[in-house]
Amino acid sequence: MKFIIFAITYFSVGMKKFIAIIILSIACGFAAKAKKSIEGYNEILAIVITDIKCDAAVECGDGRSCVMLSFGGYCDNEYFNGTVLPGAFDCQKTEQGATTLSARYVLKGRDRNNDECTIFIENNARAGAQFSHPTIYTDSKALSFLNKPGLIGFLDNSGEFTIRIFAPATY
Questions:
Q1: Other CB atoms closer than 10 Å to residue 127's CB: what's the count?
Q2: pTM for the structure as a whole
Q3: I need a surface site. Which of 13, 71, 90, 128 has the fewest CB within 10 A?
């Protein structure tokens, strides 16, 4: 299995120095090439992730570990233009050899009608999966269809590190 290693971060926990290898996607198929289209879906948000920082990590010694990453970012496309607010984080937990990823963040900006709006995103996946399963809450009338289930997320490492969120074309 090939690995995509996004960043190596040094950080301190107590008096010990650890090296955290942050693996944001494990299987190359998850993020090897840009995924600008998925049959039956439209890309709605393309969130460029910036300023990734490892804030905390715990390694239990029994195969379990947890890494907390904070990050920033922005989205600038025809549906939404705004930035990721402070407090965004990604929790990466490993238990019994399986890693789960769970990111939660809020974007503030303007929707396609140029109305101010806020978008909360919770994006969950298993490392190695091709797609994630985001849940979105937004107060935007123009983007209210994002409040429905059935969205798909895709991690695109082909250029800028980007989370692409797709909605069914029927929305």
A1: 18
A2: 0.79
A3: 13
